[in-house]
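Ticket #4471: structure export looks truncated?
Reporter: QA, pipeline team
Priority: medium

Steps to reproduce: submit the single chain below to the structure queue and open the exported record.
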Amino acid sequence: MLRALIVLCALLTAVAAATPALAGKIPEAVADDRPGPGPVTEESPHYDLEVLYGDGQIDEGLKLARARLAADPKDVELYRHVIRFLFEKGEVVERTDESMDKIALYKEMYELSNQALELDPGNAHLLFNRGIALGRMSTTKGVLSSLFNLKNVEADWIAAANAPYRYTSLSSAEDLPCDTYLTLGIFYRLVPDWWIVGALAGTRGDLDKSLAWLERADKCAPNRIRALKELGVTQLCIGTKREQPEMIARGQATLSRVLALPKAHTHSHIDKDHSRKLIADPSLACEYSRDGQQELDREKLEAEQGK
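Actual output as written to the record:
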């Protein structure tokens, strides 16, 4: 056991040394007390961009949002629109697909988030955006290759989740704080709960926290496909890890509810397809990410390091 821990420490230290030091550029995540704009209306800033996002016209929306931001780089709302359209482009491409440089895409999202936060510190929506950028960078590289960014992801999302900020896009494709609860639920499932991860990253996974955040996300905005799917995934993960057949059955039932819901957003078909695969093979759940399965096998990592 001692040798295994020493090997794992060496591996994670080497991984950390090879990871870009993004964390040092990030100030403490503190959200302000603004309530946010609430639901989008025709009077909302850049309503046409909201319509394009709601309709899933991502390429057209990104082009228009970029042009407006170039013309008015002090408009904080435009940063949020560009970041969101970039995220949507990345979601349709798996992390193993070399047709897109996803790391470059998420770095751009991260840099835009920081630029906007310099203009508007404490903006809860931008903290959520920055956490998304770093979070997706982590799942693209592999969670274990991004340990020293994880605490910053968690801090941004916790700050956004605890803020009074409220926002709902057209068709509820994006809903805050509900989506922040959702991302925290995914975070606590995907980050390993190993003590060494906690020692090096400053945080660690927790399936009970994952379940609680995802139940909160579903209660916040009931029957949204993505949140319900992720709730089912965590239920399956708990069931398989703890050998609880009743929880596996509960997760499969939750995912079956996803299949019965009407398509609601651009990526609904992806979530439905993944739900079918997870129902058929619950063993996929703990390492599941919409952009590709994660490698979270500690024994395999130790074996590879010992070669």
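Status: closed, not a bug. The export was complete when the record was re-opened. Leaving a note from the reviewer for reference: The CA atoms of residues 220 and 269 lie 22 Å apart.
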